[in-house]
Design a protein that fits this description.
The complex is a heterotrimer. Chain A has one domain: Orthogonal Bundle (Cytochrome-c3 Hydrogenase, chain B), CATH 1.10.645.10. Chain A contains 17 helices and ten strands. In chain A, helix 4 packs antiparallel against helix 11. Chain B is globular, with a radius of gyration of 25 Å. The chains are: A alpha+beta, B alpha/beta, C alpha/beta.
Chain lengths: ~425, ~230, ~220
Amino acid sequence: MSPRTVEYLVSRSPELDDRGRPVRMPVLPPGMEPELHGEHMLINIGPQHPATHGVLRLVLELDGETIISCTPHIGYLHSSFEKLGEYRTWNQIIPLTDRMDYLAPLIYNCAYAMAVEKLMGIEVTERCKVVRVICMELDRVFSHLLWLGTTAIDIGAFTVFLWTFQERERIYDLHEDLTGARITTSATRIGGMMADLPAGWIETLRNFVDTVPATLDEVETLLTNNQIWIGRNKDIGIISGEDAINCGLSGPNLRASGVTYDLRRDRPYYDYETYDFDVVVGEHGDCYDRYLVRMEEMRQSLRILDQAIERLPGGPINVNDPRVILPGKTDAMTDMESMIHHFKVVMEGVKAEPGESWFSVESSKGELGMYVVSDGGSKPVRWRVRGPSFVNLSALPQMVEGRLLSDVIAVNASLDIVLGEIDR
Amino acid sequence: MSEKTFEGALDDLEAGTAAGSAEPARGGEAGDADAHPAVRALRERFGEAILAHTVMAGDEHVVHVRADRNVEILQFLRDDPAQRFDYLADVTAVDFGGDRPIEVVYQLWSIENRRALRVKAALRVDALEIDSVAALWKTANWLERETWDMFGIRFRGHPDHRRILMPEGYAEGFPLRKDFPLRGRFSRAEQTRRALSMTVEEHYSAEELAIVEEVKRDTSPADSGEGRPAS
Amino acid sequence: MGVSLPTVPRGEAGFFTTKLDLAVNWARQNSLWPMPFGTACCAIEMMASAASKFDLSRFGMERMSFSPRQADLLICAGRVSYKMAPVLRRIWDQMMQPKWAISMGACASSGGVFDVYSMVQGIDTIIPVDVYIPGCPPRPEGLIYGILMVHEKIKGESLADPSLREENPERVGRPNLPDGVIDEIAKPFGNSTTQNRVSGLVRTTALARPGDRNP
């Protein structure tokens, strides 16, 4: 860290030396030169910051513009979902799951319901399985569209944000028709869904699936071969496959580094092995590959949606299990046994046998694990959510150390984190 | 459906079951070691360090191990060519309440063998210490910090043993323990007062403050006489 | 803690002051620059309000100011934890007068579903709030309705009233009762804002569910 002097040519008619070249003049008179120590600077990004995608705080140690170390600080949104879950019955936890990953709420609803159903040994109906697959893939597209819009806006491309939000409005309308709420859907219940699909929903969904690829194509023409986009994303934030596995990355982040781990293929649930789709794998593990993987994943999700719409069977949406499902309203009002049944399920809550279950699904961010432990009551002893973004974010420091400051924003955006799930 | 009368059902509800007094029912069946190759290998190699093997929810194999040998066992599971549990999905803990031991739970997945395994180590409530596996999987770094923050379990050898979700100076305890009330131990007014009066030390870690100290030291007026360049 | 609207009797204000008020208020309300303090799900609805379908730009609010020094309207969208509270306070303090605050959503207004150890039970314990928007999350139309309420509030303001632009938090607004009395009233309920049988500290004749974990 030796001090350096800075010399500039400041004169209009400079002195020339004997070879005809200008003599370099110091800026300041001699004796007053500034001492440019190369000490490191500590700067703080967030927790309130437009580009941190939530209340994330990054403390960076900088040498000029180069990052020496990056420390993420989280916990600014810690809402103790897991503690709150211990005081809520199994069905009352479902609205909590919406608020964790608010970008893909249906995936969380489904994952939680699937974990508890596994614990209780309940097999949902065929129709419910296909409806849940539709919900999960729809929300994967939903989440990736938001990721696309916010990443583009972070890199500087504002138009893409408006286009993707316009498409997301159509998914908001689908959510609202299905559940009554745009974001906090709470669509599933233990043993089934809150309600069956409304009339006309499948047609609207089919229209969406047929028309959204046009928007994706438009976005691709704007971004994929754009030199600015490539310059900001290519070879930035590289992480190798082995490192990614060791760091616990999952989802598109892991697949962009060349590791073919997709829970829909490797730990299939709800007949995913019978759907025809490709697992999208990148090669370089940089931000650009993560972008390409997510774009293609959206198209693959649309493929799955197409097939799911085709194969949607009729039949009941809720399983006919009196332990979990309320009797029909007419029955409950006229038949004494049904009324007692209704009373017990509502007042005591659904009861699960003692045991535990870990269920992981491929959420839009990665491997979402739900771990539920029961002691035979109507409330869990422990409800643990393995949020993919929590683990993905822990890999951020090693992806940005040694890079430049603006790369932090690009890498942070490409990891697709959501703070609700990190801080739980 | 219920065979009892309506009054009977109401009586049931009012009487209720005594919650939390007896051993909690745990569920699951005793596991057959041959059903899962990793368990068979573990039993052969570690013998009595493997305390139990159960199967939960139909197909989830859970191995209970001795807490003081967790690093050895997990290292074997990660490195042994037949096991290759290279993906640590989760590290967490479960507190059953009362004075029952708190269990540390490791969820493992082998990407090439497509197999899952859950490893549990029980810790007595008055001796909540276990060795850290952050050296084996980088995933464990933050996950163990979170387990420390929420349960108060010390991970020996952890590189950065700090709270992660709660603020650094959080004085109310460890939230996910069963004896911690849902709304915290201090009154809301006290919690607000403490939040609004957090000091700089609570916002930055010791290393980060050290960088600032170094900068302040280097640029303090006493220093300006040194290191003049020869002009 | 709330800001009381001024009651300047009509007769006392002169012609120029009222016309000036009209002009200033019109300018302020139609060019509010929001400071989006978005933390959770409500932030997504706020982003949707700013996007094409609901378009905040028709209110002059498309220029989201992420620097508090240049913002007029703090929209706290989302739940605020005690760890985040000093940050919110500091952002509010950094904003220049005139400034208004919207508490968007149930969590910002009262803690929402999160009556837990780590959540602020309403940001009005941290900063003075002008408009509360209920909802979880409120629809973009709800946010816009709240913004229009802020416009109404601004319309009713007067430059002559210094209490509107009060900076010192101790003088902005006080609860009606002294602190000691409030603590006495709240003591049986512990920290619970729901104040029902589930709080566990009050015994009632309501049925307790078997195995109920009393919070």
